[in-house]
Structures are given as C-alpha cells and as structure tokens.
Amino acid sequence: MAQDIAGDLIARARPLPALAADDVMAILDIGAYCFSPYHFNTLPEPAVHGVRTGPRGDVRFELLRPAQTIDDLLTRSR
User: Fold this and answer.
1) How far is CA 1 from the centre of its chain?
2) Three-state SS for 48?
C-alpha cells in the first residue's frame, strides 16, 4: 500500500455525486498550514470566507479575513 508522504490526501475510493458548473463543494477542517503559529514556509495567509445557507436554500458567503498581502507578510517577518 502506497503511503502519502505529504498528508494532503482527503480520502480514497469515496464516490462523489456528479458536479454541475454552478455547484459548490466544500471540504471542511483543512488548511492547518495557514493557521500555524510558525507560518509554515512564510506563505501568505489565504482569505477566509464563511458561508450560510438560508431557509430557501440561498447561499451567502462573507469575507471573515482578507488574504494577506506581500506587504503584510514582509511586515510580519521583520
């Protein structure tokens, strides 16, 4: 059995429904490198969005934290 060295595998052999062009797919609870207190590899932090689904099935996204700019990254690294 092959071993996944990087640990970036979400699942194996999991059937998924067919996706259409306007479908939204979310994979929850991933991205630990972006929240590491050590700022792994000095990568800029991505934007974080929250999502809510209303009673009629409407989906609303809200920016919770903007993406980090290169200037932000350089300021933090000083």
Assistant:
1) 28
2) strand
Rounded distance between C-alpha atoms, residue 34 and residue 59, angstroms: 25
Report DSSP state, residue 47: P
Instruction: Tell me, yes or no, if the pTM score tops 0.90.
Output: no
- pLDDT, one tens digit per residue, over 28-66 is 666 655 555 556 667 777 788 888 888 888 888 999 989
Residues 28, 11 contacting (CB under 8 angstroms):
no
DSSP state of 46: P
- Tell whether the torsion through CA atoms of 36, 39, 43 and 47 is positive or negative: positive
Query: What is the C-alpha to C-alpha distance for residues 15 and 3, in angstroms, rounded to an integer?
Result: 21
Q: CB count, 10 Å around CB of 26? A: 7
